[in-house]
Write a structure and sequence with these properties.
With 156 residues, this protein is mainly alpha-helical. It has helices at residues 4-10, 13-28, 36-55, 65-76, 80-99, 105-108, 111-132; strands at 138-142, 147-150. A hairpin with a 4-residue loop joins strand 1 (138-142) and strand 2.
């Protein structure tokens, strides 16, 4: 049985430290003490940071987001059309507005849409972390349809 922790041990130390930071922020962002918009903003930041880490982005001024996400998707072997594009679009719908101060949007959006998008981004983050660590087994792909897939299912 392969555990994600096994794969984490194989990641170069520099990347492991960055991934650990992202995981810490991901966990911190689940605090119910934070407003829902802040939790979603943290989630958007950590998933984008993960894509930058996987893509090997080094210069914050030249980390073009769509190119970075495509490179990360390719590095993981994920299909852009079958999976990553949808995640990128959900991420983009929220990240830019929240990151630029539109923090009340969580209250203005349809609550089901906001909740669903947050859950999808959370699943996408954990799926990407698992794949980055070399895991290819079963994973919860869609928490609303209770659909379990393997990471291989979203690969090219």
């Amino acid at each position: 049985m392969y555990a994600i922790a096994d794969g984490l041990g194989r990641i170069p130390n520099e990347h492991r430290k960055k991934l650990t930071t992202l995981l810490w922020h991901f966990r911190s962002g689940t605090s119910r003490d934070l407003p829902s918009s802040t939790r979603l903003l943290i989630l958007c930041a950590v998933i984008d940071g993960l894509m930058k880490l996987i893509a090997g982005a080094r210069d914050p001024k030249n980390a073009a987001t769509d190119k970075t996400w495509r490179k990360a998707s390719d590095s993981l072997g994920f299909s852009w059309d079958k999976w990553t594009r949808d995640v990128f679009e959900v991420w983009g719908k929220h990240r830019h507005l929240l990151g630029h101060g539109w923090l009340w949007l969580g209250e203005e959006l349809d609550p089901l849409e906001f909740f669903t998008d947050q859950a999808r981004l959370g699943c996408a983050f954990l799926t990407s972390v698992a794949a980055y660590c070399g895991y290819e087994g079963p994973i919860m792909a869609d928490p609303f349809r209770n659909r379990i897939i393997t990471i291989r299912d979203i690969k090219i």
